[in-house]
Amino acid sequence: MESTPAAGENIQVLRKARGVGQEALARSAGVSVSLLRKIEQGTRTATPPTVAAIAKALRVSTARVYGQPFLGLSEQSDLLEDLRNAVRRHTLPKEDVPSLDKLGDDLRKAAELRAGTKYLELLRMLPKLLGQTTATAMAAGGDAVAWSNVADVYGCAYAVAHRLVQPDLADMIVSRQQWAARQTWSPVSEAAAAWNEAGTYQSAGQYADGLAIIDRAITMFERTMVDTPTSVVALGSLHLRGVVLASRHKDKEATKAHSVKANELAARLPKDVLAHNLTFGEGNTALYDLASFVELDQPKKAAEMAGALLKTPPAGLKPSRVGRLAIDAARARMALKDYSGAEDALREAFRIAPQMAEIHPMSREVLRVLFILHQRSRPDLMDMAKRAGLMA
Questions:
Q1: Scanning 100, 292, 319, 324, which has the fewest C-beta atoms within 10 Å of its C-beta?
Q2: Cα–Cα distance measured from residue 373 to residue 293, given in angstroms and rounded to the nearest whole number
Q3: pLDDT values of the chain reduced to their tens digit, one per residue, 392 residues
Q4: Can you give the chain as a three-state secondary structure string?
Q5: Where are the domains of the chain?
Q6: What superfamily in CATH does domain 7-64 come from?
């Protein structure tokens, strides 16, 4: 992998390119000069809310600050262009209608790759799969299941675009997912699309707008909700997105309200359930609560939760969720200056969900700080830094 700068380094470059001093940028972003200096030096992590504030002050996107840490830059660029073209041609699929058995196998494989955080493998199959599912749905007329499959594949595509820091592509994918969801007449499919729509605001650091999307989606869903496990997954997932958005917005009351609702719904399921690319249950809800403690500057509480959850991860959770748990554990331990604990948690993230750990912005930020603090004295850190593209 080629070396790619992390958020702290990019902030310094963007600030200097605009001719802005640290004091002026810190004042505009509403952060302390000391914090900004440490972020640029690499001795403090750039958290999502801080990145959002600095990006707004610099008049750039959060994606510009985070950079684009690709795995195999040339191949991924080509594959992303293929995906972009497939999304653009959403009403003009080039592919023929495959057999239902073959399509079903590919749909299951795509969902498994997404849950397993195998983004490169998923990216390789998405353009063709999007065309095939769309061609099948168009041939089937108003078949709700066929259009639900299209919406679900767009959900997989959103995960790839989001993780590979392609915000414009992610926005376009969400609009296509909403288009497909409307053909299903299914509130669950529309809720899944709203979950991703709010995710685009989350990625952009526009937390209040993301919360407005979630609140609207919840209100609409509750009007027509039929009490089934899949509906519980959809509604609970919307509340979990609300937990993230509210905690990053530093709104403790809204965070608690969404958490309470999510926990009430999770108690109605015997185990965590994956449906329409949404995972929900008591295990995943605990992971979101842990993440909210990190965002609300309660790292001790988060670290205490993380210890037990990492030792025995909730049953049924896929690598996408357990890997994120490890990253949040690393963030909490880093905030407590437990550097060896943070390294242990990152090592677990790389073991469980390597492709996500290599490109996730907070994984890279924690790793960057650890690497700078320890320089080249720790072989595992050097290996993870190379895999994340923080050093050539």
A1: 100
A2: 25
A3: 456 778 888 999 999 999 999 999 999 999 999 999 999 998 999 999 999 999 999 999 999 998 866 545 567 888 999 999 999 999 999 999 999 999 999 999 999 999 999 999 999 999 999 999 999 999 998 899 999 999 999 999 999 999 998 999 999 999 999 999 999 989 999 999 999 999 999 999 999 999 999 999 999 999 999 999 999 999 999 999 999 999 999 999 999 999 999 999 999 999 999 999 999 999 999 999 999 999 999 999 999 999 999 999 998 899 999 999 999 999 999 999 999 999 999 999 999 999 999 989 999 999 999 988 875 568 888 889 888 888 76
A4: CCCCCCHHHHHHHHHHHCCCCHHHHHHHHCCCHHHHHHHHHCCCCCCHHHHHHHHHHHCCCHHHHHCCCCCCHHHHHHHHHHHHHHHHCCCCCCCCCCCHHHHHHHHHHHHHHHHCCCHHHHHHHHHHHHHHHHHHHHHCCCCHHHHHHHHHHHHHHHHHHHHCCCHHHHHHHHHHHHHHHHHHCCHHHHHHHHHHHHHHHHHCCCHHHHHHHHHHHHHHHHHHCCCCHHHHHHHHHHHHHHHHHHHHCCCHHHHHHHHHHHHHHHCCCCCCEEECCEEECHHHHHHHHHHHHHHCCCHHHHHHHHHHHHHCCCCCCCHHHHHHHHHHHHHHHHHCCCHHHHHHHHHHHHHHCHHHHHHCHHHHHHHHHHHHHHCCCCHHHHHHHHHCCCCC
A5: 7-64, 71-184, 186-297, 303-392
A6: lambda repressor-like DNA-binding domains (1.10.260.40)
